[in-house]
Design goal:
The chain has helices spanning about 30-35, 50-55, 95-115, 140-150, 180-190, 210-220, 290-300, 320-325, 340-345, 355-370, and strands at about 35-40, 65-70, 75-80, 85-90, 120-125, 155-160, 175-180, 200, 220-225, 270, 280-285, 305-315, 330-335, 350-355. The protein is of the alpha/beta class and about 375 residues long.
């Protein structure tokens, strides 16, 4: 018999009165709401965000079963009618990325064949987003995933802080790329004592626009770190300099083209004054933390007396919790787009900011046909 793991099979409804939501309505009757919200995760740890979103919306989590067969195949069973409904699939991405992607694809296709009207994927952290450029003889996996999601039946995606905003062009249907920066900025203002004495730090020149956006909104100074211990992803070989196979040629031997000089990374330096200041490094993803730890050491040497890391997606893979705990970093603040409760138990320096409110509001607006512009107030093109 296959081992079944239930993903959001039943909602636990409290007997206490349901408080009025910030959007001005109370709990909806599921039969009259006109939409359903499902979680496509087989892991219970990954359904926490879905539960928070449905609580804010005042609806129950849709009844479904998502599990792995004994041969590790993914199986999905939708336990209620979705015919003619707008259906939202909330999929958070755990460490087992490929299983989560397959669960999302199978769930979307199951809803498509069940005659759902629209199928909207709520994917706060979009997987494979770092593989959005050609590397050597590899592939642009992010574009492949976009095509797979469209083929499975998705008609719209809600996500947050894509690694590159140009990824939106990979899709042939609407993509709403929400921002977590308002929540992180609010955390800085409310939870960091004496934040007026802080300076926003870009870990690399490529992150300078994001850091500048934070600095201008908080009316703080800006510092940029330059130089790395190893090559960044932007400097990885993309195959254009690969020499052709040697072969015997006749006639014209080709032109003598100028050779591009190889880059040489300087030691890590800081452009900007951080002495006697609180340093706040901002980025979109924190995964392997070696670069952040090295940056924190340099900032400490330059006189920063406290160091914070602010990021939207806290993947925190491998030995990240231990390295953070042993480093000069005082606090790592991430949102709950990715489940990281285990990492928080291993490292008390990791703090979480809840972004379920904006995801719930996006769902409500899309279903009601309202403008999404409200969620992008004061968001510039470079943000």
């Amino acid at each position: 018999m296959p081992i079944r793991r239930l993903g959001g099979y039943k909602s636990v409804v409290s007997s206490s009165p349901i408080p009025k939501l910030s959007y001005g309505f109370t709990k909806m009757n599921m039969s009259r709401s006109g939409y359903r919200v499902f979680s496509a995760n087989s892991s219970t740890a990954c359904t926490e965000l879905a539960k928070k979103i449905t609580e804010r919306l005042g609806v129950e989590l849709g009844k479904s079963v998502v599990y792995q067969e004994s041969n590790t195949e993914t199986r999905v069973e939708v336990k209620e009618s979705v015919r003619g409904q707008d259906v939202f699939i909330i999929q958070t991405i755990p460490r087992d990325v490929n299983t989560a992607v397959m669960e999302l694809l199978v769930m979307a296709y199951a809803l498509k064949t069940s005659c759902a009207k629209n199928i909207i994927g709520v994917i706060p952290y979009f997987p494979y987003s770092k593989q959005c450029k050609m590397r050597k003889r590899g592939s642009i996996v992010c574009k492949l995933l976009a095509s797979m999601l469209a083929k499975a039946g998705l008609t719209h995606i809600i996500t947050m802080d894509l690694h590159q905003k140009e990824i939106q062009g990979f899709f042939n249907f609407p993509v709403d790329n929400l921002r977590a920066s308002p929540f992180l900025i609010q955390y800085i203002q409310e939870e960091i004592p004496d934040y007026r004495n802080a300076v926003i730090v870009a870990k690399s020149p490529s992150a300078a626009k994001r850091a500048q956006s934070y600095a201008e909104r908080l009316r703080l100074g800006l510092a940029v770190m330059h130089g790395e211990a190893h090559h960044s992803e932007s400097d990885m070989a993309d195959g254009r300099h690969s020499p052709p196979l040697s072969r015997t040629t006749t006639g014209h031997t080709g032109l003598e083209l100028p050779l591009m000089m190889a880059k040489e990374k300087p030691p890590i330096t800081v452009v900007g004054d951080v002495g006697g200041r609180i340093a706040i490094i901002v980025d979109d993803i924190i995964d392997d933390v070696e670069d952040f730890v090295a940056a924190a050491d340099i900032l400490k040497e330059r006189g920063a007396y406290k160091i914070y890391i602010m990021a939207t997606h806290g993947l925190l893979s491998a030995e990240a919790p231990r390295l953070i705990e042993e480093s000069a970093i005082d606090e790592v603040v991430v949102t709950n787009t990715v489940p990281h409760e285990v990492q928080k138990l291993q490292c008390p320096k990791i703090k979480t900011v809840d972004v379920s409110m904006i995801l719930a509001e996006a769902i409500r607006r899309i279903h009601n046909g309202e403008s999404m512009a409200y969620l992008f107030r004061n968001i510039a093109v470079d943000d």
